[in-house]
Amino acid sequence: MMKKLLKWEEAAMFAFSIYLFSMTSFPWWYFLVLILLPDIGMLGYLIDSNIGAFSYNLLHHKGIALVLLICGYLWGVQWLEIAGIILFGHSSLDRILGYGLKFPSGFKDTHLGPIR
User: Torsion angle of alpha carbons 58, 105, 46, 31, nearest 10°?
Assistant: First the structure.
């Protein structure tokens, strides 16, 4: 029951990111293209699992996403605002699919449990 509740919560946050994006002046295809961009953090795993976990988590941390979004909004820097929206939405989508923040022990070890 708890896993389903958490997935619904993440789905609501993903929907919120779509709403926030709709408030921008960017065309929708930007959202579709940019939503996968945070996964470049996985490239750190080509070096080792510590760097991989750090780079992945940096680009999948909702706190960082919110800071970027708020700073972009307050300072009128639209690319920061979009970056925050994309990071927030992508992180929610990943968590719906069971991909959580990574531990240095390996890509499949996440804060949501092991990826099967």
Answer: -40
DSSP symbols for 37-87:
GGGGGGGGGGT-HHHHHHHHHHTT-HHHHHHHHHHHHHHT-HHHHHHHHHH
Question: pLDDT, tens digit, for every residue of 33-75?
Answer: 999 999 999 999 999 999 999 999 999 999 999 999 999 999 9
pLDDT above 90 as % of the chain:
84
CA distance 68 to 34: 15
What is the rounded radius of gyration, in angstroms, for the C-alpha atoms of the chain? Answer: 14
